[in-house]
Amino acid sequence: MLDRYSIAFLLIFSWHIVELNASAGDANPHYRDCVKQCEETGCAGHRCFANCKFSGDDLTHGPWYKQEPLYLQWKKWDCQSDCRYFCMVDIEKEKELNNGVPVKYHGKWPFRRIYGMQEPASVAFSVLNLAAHFHGWVSFFILLYYKMPLKDGKKPYYEYVNLWHTYALLSMNCWFWSAVFHSRDVDLTEKLDYSSAVALLGYSLILAILRSFNVRDEATRVMISAPLIAFVATHILFINFYKLDYGWNMKVCVGMAVTQLIIWAVWGGVSRHPSRWKLWLVVFAGGLAMLLELYDFPPYEGLLDAHALWHATTIPLTYIWWSFIRDDAEFRTSNGVKKAK
Ligand SMILES: [Zn+2]
Questions:
Q1: How confident is the model at residue 15 (pLDDT cuts 50, 70, 90)?
Q2: Among the CATH numbers 3.30.450, 1.20.1070, 3.40.109, 3.30.460, which is that of 120-340?
Q3: How far is the CA of 267 from the centre of ligand 1 (A)?
Q4: pTM for this structure?
Q5: Which of 64, 163, 186, 194 has the fewest Cβ atoms within 10 Å of its own Cβ atom?
Q6: CA 306 → CA 175, 200, 296, 303, 310, distances in Å?
C-alpha cells in the first residue's frame, strides 16, 4: 500500500519529469544558472521583471487556507516564463555571433515574442484559418437560405445542412484555441487546443462517412455516429485527466485524418461528383501539408517554423473546401427540386 511518503516521493518525482522536458537548450548549465539567478534576483542581464518581486514563504502545498494567494502563484509563474525567455534570448544571441546553430528549449525552438505572443506566426495563421471558416460558413448560409429554392416551411433541400453548421462551429472553436495555445503555452491551453482538435477530427470523420454513404435517415445517422463519438469522448477524457500521451494522441489524430481523406477521395471518384476536382485538390494538398509536421526545422528569423507554415497552408485549402461544400449543396438541391416536380 502506498503510504504518505511514497505518495510525496511520487509527486516530487513526477513534477521533476515535467520540469525536465529534456531539450538540448535547457540542459545547458549556462542557461540553468542564468534562470536560477534570475528567479532569485528578478533580473536577467540588464533586464529586471516586476513579476519576480514576491514576498512570503513558499506555501504551494498544504490546506487551501494556508496556500499562497492565486495572484502570487501567477506572478511566480510569469517570473519563471520571463526568466526562461530572456536567458534563452541572450544565449542564442551569443551563439549566433559565434555561428552556432539554434537548439530547442523545453521542447520548443527559440521563438521571438511579439506583444507577449510566444509563436506569433502560428497565432496569426490560426486567426486567419478561423476567419476563412467564418467566411465559408456565412457564404454557405447565404447560398442556402437566400439564393436557392426552399421547401415548404422554409427548409433547404440540402439534407446535410445541420451537419455542416456543426462542422463550422467546431472548426472555429478549434482555431480559436489554437491561437490561444500558440500565444501562451501552458498546461490548460495545451489541453484545450488538443481536445478541440480531436473533437473536430472525430466529427469530420463522422461527417465524411454520413455524406459519402448518403446516410439521410436520422436513426441510421445516430447508429453510425454513436461508437465514434464514444471513442472520441473517451480519448478526450484520457488525454485531459489520465495522461497526455503525445505519441498515442498523434496516432489517433493521423488515423482519423487519413481515414477521412481516403473516404472523400474514393467517394469523389466513385460518385462522379461534379466538383470532385476540388475534393481531390484538398485531399492531395492536405496530405502534402501534413508532411510539414514531420519536417521540423528551426524558425526563420525566430518566427516562421514548419508548424506555422503548416497552419498557413490550411488557409487557402479552407476556401476551396467551403467552395466544395457550397457546390455540393447546389448539386443536391437541384436533384431535390427535380424530384419534387
Ligand atoms: Zn498549431
A1: very low
A2: 1.20.1070
A3: 29
A4: 0.83
A5: 64
A6: 17, 22, 6, 10, 6
